[in-house]
Amino acid sequence: MSELNAGPNAGVETQTTADQRAVRMGKRADMLKQEERLPYPVGVENTTTIQAVLEKHGDLEGSEVKSGDIVGISGRVIHVRKTGKLVFAVLQAGDHSRLQAMLVENAVGEQAFEDFNRLVDIGDHIFVHGEIGTSRTGELSIYADRWEMASKSLRPLPNLHTDLSDEMRMRRRYVDLIVNPEAQRIARLRTRVIQALRDTFRERNYIELETPMLQVVPSGASARSFDTHMNAFDMQVSLRIAPELFLKRAVVGGLDRVFEINRNFRNEGADSTHSPEFTMLECYEAYADYNVMANLAQELIQNAAIAATGSTLVTLDDGTEFDLGGEWKRIDLYESISHYAGEEITPETSAEHLRELARKFEVDVDEETLGHGKLVEEIWEHLIPAEELYNPVFVMNYPVETSPLTRDHRDRPGVVEKWDLYIRGSEIGTAYSELADPVIQRERFVQQAQLAAGGDEDAMRYDEDFCDAMEFGFPPSGGMGIGIDRVLQTITGLGIRETILFPLIKPIEN
């Protein structure tokens, strides 16, 4: 019985996990034979919750004070302490709120008391009926007059500090949620962030849409797709890499303000800021531009921070504070790269000269396939100091070559009206003044096809139906995409796998 006294994070002690599971399986079998105390009943007679009891009686004080409130509650057993004919069991609700149950042999009956000692393990869900009061030491408790098994746990809970590595926490998130309050806090915080985003859009008269996840032409971003075969139509389809082109079709159809919070899939690397499956927010507004989208992005993220933490001054995982408030800075990409390169770089700067600069600054690039646009971006990313991208900053005005869906800058040839938002060194989102001319759009798609033929695996796919849609008149619009997982990283300071409830992880090979 040593496991029952091991504490709230009881793990392996004198028995292996397999041995403990075998013991618990035996208890399950015994309960099935008894019939009157099933290991997995259809339900129990809950009349309230642990949370409600704490709220109602949290101010009950004194030694062995009775409230007169008779309740039935359920919770997970996380700690058991035995003292003769009295057992103390700490019950934990799903949100980690806790209440002590006191089982006295005379109150519950000799057989029920014996059954509890023989059958109950750490991790079991049990139901307890009785009166709410305080223990001799003044702890709020339920004085049990009966108990039932609600769900028998066949595996022991791990010790958070010694048995549950970061990787195992990701692999068995359900266990992490049980023993680690922080995991639950992040999961609940994520829902508040997403709700805040929806609320901000609702205030701006946007409507939320759903676009296809299976696409014939995976386009709308420069990324590699996950491809599969559709048996019904005997054709190849792909998981979407972005919802952009379908949301724009909706704008063509007269839905002037649209957004989608969607799952995207990109068959690329996985690291602390990238996941092959991730959540993206995309929105489009007719008669807006990238400046309007910058204002909207700032409002969305600031509102999300307030909803999640109560303030735009957030406390990160390492204990430091980070300020998301105020007006966010905007810098020009070409002015920035010129400053740090020590010479003026313009859209007219040749790819050959940019390759020379790449060699000069020891930037690792593929000189054979990269043109002006990608060379500019690669050199800029290499030269820009990290502190320039720490506080929220919009990097404005990108090369036309790397932004095939973006409108040319209204004043500057060779540049498009696009920004990337950086916070704490990570790219959080991007926005455009959207390209509305279907003729130029077809030309851009052709250029992307030529890049793909030259070996660029990330070149954007040609979507003929989308071009047809644009020919029906796509109004001047602003569009934006923001990574939800990265917004969570911004607010919490955690890695991307921490902010995704069930991240994709490579299976362990036997």
TrEMBL record:
Entry keyword Cytoplasm: yes
Top-level taxon: Bacteria
Region annotated Disordered, chain positions: 1-20
Name of the top EC class for this enzyme: ligase
Catalytic activity from the UniProt record: tRNA(Lys) + L-lysine + ATP = L-lysyl-tRNA(Lys) + AMP + diphosphate
Listed GO MF terms: ATP binding; lysine-tRNA ligase activity; magnesium ion binding; tRNA binding
SUPFAM superfamilies, A to Z: Class II aaRS and biotin synthetases, Nucleic acid-binding proteins
Binding site for Mg(2+) 1: 420, 427
Binding site residues for Mg(2+) 2: 427
Keywords of this entry: Aminoacyl-tRNA synthetase, ATP-binding, Cytoplasm, Ligase, Magnesium, Metal-binding, Nucleotide-binding, Protein biosynthesis
Cofactor mode of binding and number, as noted: Binds 3 Mg(2+) ions per subunit.
Homology family: Belongs to the class-II aminoacyl-tRNA synthetase family.
GO biological process, one term: lysyl-tRNA aminoacylation
InterPro entries: Aa-tRNA-synt_II, aa-tRNA-synth_II, aa-tRNA-synth_II/BPL/LPL, Lys-tRNA-ligase_II, Lys-tRNA-ligase_II_N, Lys-tRNA-synth_II_C, NA-bd_OB-fold, NA-bd_OB_tRNA
PANTHER family on file: LYSINE--TRNA LIGASE, CHLOROPLASTIC_MITOCHONDRIAL, LYSYL-TRNA SYNTHETASE
Protein localization: Cytoplasm
HAMAP family associated with the record: Lys_tRNA_synth_class2
One cellular component (GO) term of this entry: cytosol
Domain Aminoacyl-transfer RNA synthetases class-II family profile, residue spans: 188-507
Protein species of origin: Dermabacter vaginalis
Pfam families: tRNA-synt_2 (PF00152), tRNA_anti-codon (PF01336)
Oligomer status and interactors: Homodimer.
Enzyme Commission designation: 6.1.1.6
Cofactor needs: Mg(2+)
UniProt protein name: Lysine--tRNA ligase
